[in-house]
Design a protein that fits this description.
The structure holds 2 protein chains of 2 kinds. By secondary structure, chain A is an alpha+beta fold. Chain A has 3 domains: about 110 residues, Acyl-CoA dehydrogenase/oxidase, N-terminal domain (Butyryl-Coa Dehydrogenase, subunit A, domain 1, Orthogonal Bundle); about 100 residues, Butyryl-CoA Dehydrogenase, subunit A, domain 2, CATH 2.40.110; about 150 residues, Up-down Bundle (Butyryl-CoA Dehydrogenase, subunit A, domain 3). Chain A contains 11 helices and 10 strands. In chain A, the strands form 3 sheets. A 4-stranded mixed β-sheet of chain A has the order 1-4-5-8, covered by helices on one side. Chain A has a 4-stranded antiparallel β-sheet with strand order 2-3-7-6, with no helix packed on it. In chain A, helix 7 runs parallel beside helix 9, helix 8 packs antiparallel against helix 9 and helix 9 packs antiparallel against helix 11. Chain A is globular and about 75 Å long. Chain A starts with 6 loop residues before the first helix and ends with a helix. Chain B is of the alpha+beta class. Chain B is built from 12 helices and 10 strands. Chain B starts with 6 loop residues before the first helix and ends in a 24-residue tail after the last helix. The chains are: A alpha+beta, B alpha+beta.
Amino acid sequence: MDLDFSDDQKQLRDTLRRFLADRCTSTAVRAILEGPEPYDRALYKGLAEMGVLGAAIPEEYGGLGLGHLELCVLAEELGRADAPVPVASSIYLTAEFLLAAGSEAQKAAWLPKLAAGEAIGAVALAERPGRVTPASIQVKAEGGKISGVKLPVADGDVADVAVVAARTGAGDQAISLFLVDMAGPGVSREAVESFDPTRSQARVTFNGAPAELLGAAGEGMALIERVFDRAAVLVAFEQVGGADRALEMARDYALDRMAFGRQIGSFQAIKHMLADMYVSATLARSNAYYGAWALSTDAAELPIAAATARVSATQAFQHCAKNNIQVHGGMGFTWAFDCHLYYRRSNVLALALGSQTTWEDKLIERMRRQNTAAA
Amino acid sequence: MNFDDTPDEAAFRAKIRVWLDANAPRHLEAELRNAGFGFQGVTSEDPMTASKAWQKKKQAAGYACLHWPKEYGGGGFSPIERVIWNQEEAPYNSLSGPFTIGHGMCGPTVMAWATEEQKRRLLPPCASGEEIWCQLFSEPAGGSDLAGLRTRAERASDGSGDWIVNGQKIWTSGAQHSDWGLLISRTDPDVAKHKGLTMFYLSMKTPGIEIRPIKQANGDHGFNEVYFTDVRIPDAQRLGDVNQGWEVSLTTLMNERLSIGSGMPTGYPELLSYCMNAEIDGRPAIDDSNVRSRLATYAVRASGLRYTAMRAITALSKGETPGPENSIGKLVAGASMQELSMFAMDLMGQGGVLRNGKDGADANGRFQAMAMRSPATRIEGGSDEILRNIIAERVLGLPGDIRVDKNVPFRDIPTKGRG
């Protein structure tokens, strides 16, 4: 039994934690929060130079070819540091879509650039509020060109390439994925205000933009489900990292802040709130490790493990981020304290791959199928 | 990451499987697997006889108290081997119920504090199940605040050095079956409460002990009150120094929280099956989105506990000490079981009020039994609130509570809230 990271992976974690403590300070995050830049370019370049963006990309495509456990380690540290970089869009999603379904030419064209941080990828699915279902997708693909509007697209304002879900005809089976060069003709985009300005969002309009089919025609929804399961484990590690950091902030404040002549951390109302935060963060971490095992071994259990990790991590990060504000009292609701950074991020990550109820639904449907098969 | 055994672990597992195949009481398997929640399940023969027979057989082969040294009746195995044994012994582990307190708490305390001669006398029959132990700690006035206990031990006036005990204990599991008890008592009421306690062990057959079963809120009788009237204990049966009892008790309580990998039940697998079979408006309950959302919440708690235990087992397998993560187990499991059993009853609609399968209660009344038993899970062995204090103080490093009775002589501590 070995449900833990290896010594090398722990060493990578320590290296990344030091690097991010130095390069992704609160000041650096706030520069993105308050400034015109959509993401921290220097930080992204630094991560690319360390090679970690390509940790799970095969060497033949310019990556390190290590595996997904290293990517889990990276994700946790990015979550802890509230890093304002497009790693999820570019690496957990676009690169995984290419690896799962890309042609040799598509992989050769984009994976080395994604691994090197020279290109950024985005995934454009949603068009309107509500779940992404076949019926919700109205962007049309015809004769190698797509038209329509996607909103919101995470990192769509800065992406060089996008994976776009589009409709090739009528009915639920007519959804396919396309690869679009965002610098090409027929693409216009504008940044829109994001609940978490450290993670930018865009409205992307396609007007006869050239698009290459990614994967088989009509396979779009199945591919989304498959790649989202993989990404869910990685995002869960970002959430686990964020939950741990929010818990630490609350703990530190409870030790420093005095009221009624004593540390507020000596009041049971505060202690018990923090204990409950520890409980949800611990459950989420253990579930994320389960997801990491399934992802890194391509286990048949991955769909259940991914949904478990996802649901648990969303609960934990939201729980810890909101109670971190509560423990800080009024100071937690000031712009000057960092509590709101984690609160914003927790809510954005909770939606990044579809809502909590969507994932709860998937988890139970998958458990039902497993139970039926076993019976 | 993997869930595989190391070669040594696999060899040990294979070895004990062979032994279990040849020796386990197969005739009891069906009863044990079908036991109702919270019950051992043996009805075809005397359950205590069945428990003792299995324990004795295990001890003879070295599989009782795997982690204890061999000279005290244990198996001399490593912590990870103990975990593997527990996995493989299922479903026969539930036969060990009567010995849990002795093996998990009293035995380790005796091992840490008794003389060599006492250890050699007391521990082997404890390991083999020939002698059963109970723990005489909680009192009507001292549960979470254990150090507030009032049972008195005073030196006999005859110069023998013996102690005379008077008072009352409560919530004593298995006292009626016990041969020995581990007793904490007050020996000095004139000092602060933690500083005037002393630990003893005594035969439960000692004159002056009266055991009365407690009828619990769920109608069951798992616990007892134990009354002491001029009970005489030789000074040689004292564990630790006079007034060092609090320190001794910490050995016991630390061991209570070391039971790793045992995995508290949450009731989730039962709820999932129930929701696949039950119907809402003619459709499986599991198709309902509210039901799915609730199920998912319980599912990730059950899974989180399972993989938290596996992380602890990973540490044991590498020869490391597990982290503090396991402290969440009972807190999560107790609350989950209570919530989900009430949810299952809600799904039954008005039929949820039925208690027994014979009257038509759904799922054979399993969830009603859980709903009636789970309040106790949230209290026994450290209440939810005490567990949160422990996590906050020992794991997160927050300050201890301000204790208004800390430096007050025990006899001056107020005992009445109103009136």
